[in-house]
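Discussion board: Methods & Data

I've been asked by a reviewer to show the raw model output for two of the constructs in my manuscript, not just the figures. I'm not sure how much to include, so I'm pasting the format here to get opinions. Each protein appears as its amino acid sequence followed by a line of discrete structure tokens. Is this the kind of thing reviewers expect to see in a supplement, or should I convert it first? Here is construct A:
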Amino acid sequence: MAPVAEEAGQPSTANGSTSKFYQPPIHQASEPPKPKTVKGLGYHSSPYWNSSCPLVIDNGSSELRAGFAIASTDIINGPYLYYDNLVSKTRDRKRNASVLLVGNDVYADSLSRGSIRSPFDGDVICGWDAMENILDYTFSKLGIDTSTVQHPIMMTETLCNPAYSRGVMNELMFEGYGVPSVNYGLDCIFSAYQNGIDGDALIVSSGRSSTFVVPTVGGKGILTSAKRLSWGGSQASDFLLRLIQLKYPNFPTRVSQQQAQNMLEELCYVSEDYAADIKGMEMAPSLTRTEGTNHLTAMEKADVIVQFPYTEIVRDEKTEEELKAQAERRKAAGLRLQEQTRRIRLEKLMQKENDLKYYAQLKEWKAKERKSEYLKRLESEGFDSEQELENQIKKIEAALKRSRAREAGEDEEEDKEPPSFPLIDVPDVDLDEEGIKEKRRQRLMKAGYDARIRAKAEKAEEKRLRDEEIKKDEDERINDPQAWSRRMRKEYDEAINRIKERKRLKEMLSDRKSLAAQQRMKNITALASDGPSASGTASPQAGVRKRKRGGDEDTFGANDDDWAIYREIHNADDSEEEEDSYAQLAAFEERLLQNDPTFTQEDTYSAQQARKNRLTLTFFNGPGGGSEATEALLGQNAKGRKKGDEPSIAEETKAENESIRLAHQVHLNVERIRVPEVLWQPSIAGVDQAGIDEICSHVLNGFDLETRLRMSKNVFYTGRHTSYRNFGKRLESSLRTISPWQTPLIVRGARDPRFDAWRGMAKWCLESNPAEARLGGGGETFRSSSITRQDFLEKGQDWFYEHAFSGNWRA
């Protein structure tokens, strides 16, 4: 496992420059695994050729390790082959053929990674086709090109391996590969054997799919007392991946299973006191930041940044001459556009003048011919009456007047005489049909004109009152600042209370049993029955009866209260009102900050919300809630720039790239101790089983006192899932708390959890008769406990011999 960076680091920014803000350690997310070249063994030129030395295969559910056991140097160096126990099928487009990939080759490309499968279902082999492919690959890489494998096999299997699974493996070995003999054992006991754990001991082994607690008496595993926890590295990486997905549901890139596993192995650690550490992480960080790490809380100190790959924006920085040329081109394009607009406007003006002349000539025909012929002429030009022609002429004259005033830069409203409406006071009896129509039109125009005059007067009055209120407020601020401050504080608090009340009502409406939701349903019922609003007194049934008798029209909407009910029924978010409330709040804050020395930035509404959400923001964005890195970047970009100057393209690009970089970051803090803690508290992940400390206590209590004391002094842990930092310390402390007083307790870990099991297997195969083993015969105990082909044919495929390291040894 890679070492974890220390949490208390030198404060620095992401680009390496010194800053007063604390920067957590940054861990680069792992790239997809790449295929690794497995060098084949020169079998015919090696000492293994024409010998019967054992072939040792540690068939783990995550990794397969294989090699020959013939000399001590081979055992010390470890297995010759080791690769992921996986297979994959892909399509070679160049050759148009299917390709079978095994081991590390399954990571060749995205197509091969998408079809990866393992022969294991948990700890038990179920995919025998894949297992056969993996063994074919193993023997070929060892250089065995004979028709049969002439070496005895020593292979690992899981605890309490089903008889059917062992029988199929025997059939594959004897019928498929023609091996002379095969033997099986537990990897955890072999690892303990390699590390000198003999006699009475307690072995804790945690691998990819499960965790085992196996007691040994006299160096022999007592498997009838062994216990299993359904939690391992695979479940832990899945759990971490789910936590990250829940924490960052909108993360811009996909977090793969392999990346989650790397984060688990490299960044997670076991807490020595989980309850105390979690309680310390609940402490909200302070808003006041100082240099160094003394002000950091437990969560901020535990925070680690995982930086995922991203693509930066690249923009070419233009020279000063290019910028000037670009500005000139932009200015010239603007002038051309203005000239084109002016030309189009003049063309329209000329067209309107021509139309006005044409309609004036058309009007002159009225005095030259009879009325019937004149009306026919108007109809041929598209006018139904003389009045329509008059209206068209007036419209064109008004448009020409506005256009000329705009061209001359004059205000058309200045010196504008009020319109006259001469027909309004004329009785209808004195007017013909056309006059009556014109009188109605003038009445509408006068109503509109009067409405505009009233609106102007109201605006002027509002402006006068507002100016008086501003003057009064300014006088109070100058003459009585304390009273002004109390009044402003009161109005500021009322604005905050209105915002809080709006949020509270929104939350209440989401609950259909709340009082607000019930009132909303009452309003809906009242409106549906044509009854009054909630504040009315009439019954809905009365409204129904009235409507059936042909009563008045529906007047809903005439009152402002009706629209409040409408918004409430539709559950509207009132975004405009909310924006107005925040704008009013910002205005209050600006005036108080300028004129009230007792009102500081810490008293603003945003600061109050920041204090409230500080712990949540730290959980998601690390120390400072993500704001400190942004402030540092803005300070660097603004350095050397004059006030009012716009940022350069380089500064904008740098800010955008920094935003992209921060969006591709995952902050791990609580997860670093939460995921490994599942081994001690499986209920955290929803596993209804006991933790490893309780399992160890239960196993120890199954033996007499003397044996139990000897086991307590010989506790051994191994497996890839035990490589967390502080694993041994936590296991020892947890066992000590549940053990009787003054019980001797010694906990040790494997020197090399990855290869110690294979070394122990090779060592056991040679130990009984080392001299003979060096000649290629193997140890006596290994040979006597192996299943031969004759045993397979005579006694059945599930026949096996028990020995001290087998998976079925009984006390």
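Construct B, same format:
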Amino acid sequence: MIIGSRRVSTTAAPRHSVIHRPLRAALAATLATALSTLLACASLLASLPAHAAHAIAQYGEPKYPAGFAHFDYVNPDAPKGGTLVLANPSRLTSFDKFNPFTLRGNAAPGLELMFESLAVGSADEVATVYGLLADDIVVAPDGLSVTFHINPRARFSNGDPVTADDVKFSLDTLKSPRAAPQYASIFSGIKRAVVVDPRTVRFEFVERNRELPLLAGSMPVFSRKWGMKPDGSRIPFDQLAFEKPIGSGPYLIESYDNGRNIAFKRDPNYWGAELPVRVGMNNFDRIVYKLYADNVARLEAFKAGEYDALVEYIARNWVRRDVGKKFDSGELIKRVFPQHNGTGMQGFILNTRRPLFQDVRVRRALDLALDFQWLNRQLFFNQYTRIDSYFANTEWQAKGLPSPGELALLEPFRGQLDPAVFGALPKQPDTDPPGSLRANLLQARDLLQQAGWTYRDGALRNDKGEPFRFEILDDSGSAGAMEPIVATFTRNLQKLGITATFRAADYAVYQKRLDAFDFDVTTIRMPDVQVPGQEQVNRFGSKAADTPGSDNAIGVKSPAVDAVLNALVHAQTREQLSDAAHALDRLLMHGYYVVPHWYSGTHRVAFKRGLAWPKTLPLYYGAEGWITSMWWYEAPDASTPAAGKVPNKAPKS
């Protein structure tokens, strides 16, 4: 999906089911993950002369020149109209607020439709961004600031013009303690926003960092009047609940019901419909989300015609369950769409804050116990490839032996690192002949013995006699899909004397436990990036490990990783960024912090007859956001779903 200047590849590495971390809030989490091509790519911006521009290209010139008509991957003549009905886009099964930028509570799905940013990325370039709210961008020659001029036509949904004061207010609010803590981390390199005049705002940086100009451009902008009472007093930002956001995006909240359904209508006065970066987009009059309690209910509801499009992440469902009379008649259609996103990392996340997982030999042993080849044959219909890198399917994936540039980053920490880090990359366990699960488990047993774990009295025990046992946590809405996978994994662990129990918790409880890092093992997907940058600091930096709600669920605290992250975000050239990314990948893979899962190079989508999409596909995209932003109904008629208005009722406490 495209949110402001952030390209959010929510399904960039299609997963077997529910293996991404639950969205802390619909837009809050996507911002942290969406630094993909937009945020991270700024790491390579060369020193730019001060000049106004419609776009900034990371390499060479932007694909689209000033005055371009529209992106190549949209249909500029797409008809407008109809109602698109969708189901839960994440594990979210209910919501209790409209503020996606705070930590507590669950934000409604679709709120990204209401917010925009100063610049927006294109979906067919890795490293170019174009003005959205801003019509000119000026990067200072010294790289210590960037200035945006706001388009005079830009308007909030209440009719007010978007001003530099609103931009400054948005930054100050997001960096404040009342917003989710990851925003303070993400925008830590921005010292302040300075109002130059009503339509000009300058972001000043703590230090020269090639990523920061685009990071500033990616920031969601909202009105200062959001949460303001008639008497002029203000509701504290972290207490905003069902106060409707005042943003500049193409959609407005039309109705909602009991925290389970929400409908958006296209703003008839949307200011940006004719912008080149918006032509051919936002084609539905209404977009409705219906939230179902679990995957089974969601699938059956789709087959019953309750909503219009289903992005299928479960291979078993795609082959065996996404079938029936409506598929046979053509009323429901299945289609596989290619994509070129990186995979991201997904898998069983081992919380290294727990003493049980602090020995790398133990973590490696657990990796050896997962039989991917068996799972792929028996459960996945051979539709997946094992993940072998945090940047798989991209040029940033480490390969072979460390390069001279990598060694220069790693050498200062040679005494602290496993010597294996300076050798070949580890290969994921394989059980296809001549490999076998038995051989892998024997190797795992040896590693566990080296770490002080031996089998006695019916269990694997340490020198204190304590048994090796842990809990795999998931949310109840996704437990059904993960259960056969976890059962296979735990059965293999039992052969080592390890007891792993599977616990499914209510989504709200699950999310709260993850935010507090109160878990042993869970399943998480770290969304892909086309070019790594600041988001990696929030995922693997030592400071983030101690910040509740951060993306460092693993708890990585490594001086070597911190040094490489610093080199990555301060890279001045493509070569420097490549060396830092490869070194980071090498450190993380040798750390065995995750038991990696799998990925696919396609999006599987089932949808109702009548929906259509552009002939030219984007290169880097998430299926859900692509559907909401660029699809349309060819001929809205009586068969077009009409959700009807949903009464405005807040969830019951």
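Answer (T.O., handling editor elsewhere):
This is acceptable in a supplement if you add a one-line summary per construct. For B, something like: Confidence is low (pLDDT under 50) at residues 1-51, 636-653.
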